[in-house]
Amino acid sequence: MKANLSRRTVLAGLVALTMGAAASLPAAAQPDYPGKMIKIVVPFAAGGSSDVQGRMLAERLSKLYKQSVIVENRPGAGGHIGGKAVVDAGSDGYTLLLGSIGLHATYGVYKKLAYDPGKDLKLVTILAEMPHVVVATPGLPVRDLKQLTALAKEKPGTIHFGSAGVGSSVHMIGELYRITSGAPVEHVPYKGSSLALNDLLGGQIQLMFENPPTVIGHLQSGRLKALAVTGKVRSPALPEVPTTAEAGLPGYEATSWTTIAVGASVPDAIAEKLNADIRGILATADFKKGLLDQGMTPVGNSREAAKQFVAAEKAKWDKVIQQGKITLD
Question: Lowest-pLDDT range, 19-23, 33-37, 291-295?
Answer without folding.
Answer: 19-23
